[in-house]
Amino acid sequence: MSHIQVRDDQGVRIISFNRPEKRNAFNLEMYQQFTEYLIQGEADNDIRAFLFHGTENCFTSGNDIVDFLQSGALDDNHPTVKFLFCLLDLKKPVVAAVTGAAVGIGTTLLLHCDLVYADNKAKFQMPFVNLALVPEAASSILLPLIVGQQKAAELILLGEAFDAETAEKLTIINRVVAQDELISFSLAQAKKLAALPPLSMQASKRLLRHNQAEVKAQMKLELVEFAERLQSDEAKQRFQAFLKK
Ligand SMILES: C/C=C/C(=O)SCCNC(=O)CCNC(=O)[C@H](O)C(C)(C)COP(=O)(O)OP(=O)(O)OC[C@H]1O[C@@H](n2cnc3c(N)ncnc32)[C@H](O)[C@@H]1OP(=O)(O)O
């Protein structure tokens, strides 16, 4: 069974992560598949919104650490890079439903979503420095805009996990929803978006994200730094330590 699954429901393209044995860690094939489903959805006039979710106890543990160890050049053809720019450029609205852990890109991709809901067991973490890396997905610009400079520094430099209640207070997510209602509620919200006039919806999203050029430039800067850190001895030691644990 594919680790990225897709189905369409009344104008909503639902993309789910399904690799629970590795806590839905994104490997290169998953990034590629995810990007393809997004590109197809953007091109399909019947699709008017996206919904992302994980499995019952995990959204995603972020990038596959094994892939970090084997990573090639992070150029424009790299599946992770392609995914990040595709996510950034999405014209149609995106809803995310977070169950359990959302680590690394699992948290930073939420900053590109338009509505984010989480259950009360959700845990968020951006452990980039802990892994001897740097923030990605433009989180170094988006997070300070959302939560303020000092709080962003705390979340990124210390890299500690925080719960759904904290994420709601910081407005990283819209609302905490009971676990058994999370997917149905998030889907209902996505269907509401899908039912509204699509061109107005897309223009409004574009206006809300008026700083896209700056965000994209920051994402590019992050990737240069990230690629360099990825090759460092301190990062390799951290990856090995996680995998041996
Ligand atoms: C460009 C993007 C950058 C980023 O995304 S950086 C962030 C990278 N991600 C991480 O550092 C997260 C690493 N994972 C965790 O911290 C924990 O996991 C969780 C909190 C998500 C879940 O903890 P628990 O429920 O106790 O599960 P478990 O025993 O740690 O993991 C179960 C199996 O899943 C594998 N796994 C988990 N996350 C990853 C990952 N990110 N990459 C590769 N494998 C992963 C483990 O190794 C293990 O596997 P086995 O059962 O074979 O021992």
TrEMBL record:
It is found in: Peroxisome. It holds the Pfam family ECH_1. One of its GO terms (molecular function) is delta(3)-delta(2)-enoyl-CoA isomerase activity. Its EC number is 4.2.1.17. InterPro entries: ClpP/crotonase-like_dom_sf, ECH/Chromodomain_protein, Enoyl-CoA_hydra/iso. Its main location: other. Keywords: Isomerase, Lyase, Peroxisome. This is Enoyl-CoA hydratase. It comes from Shewanella frigidimarina (strain NCIMB 400).
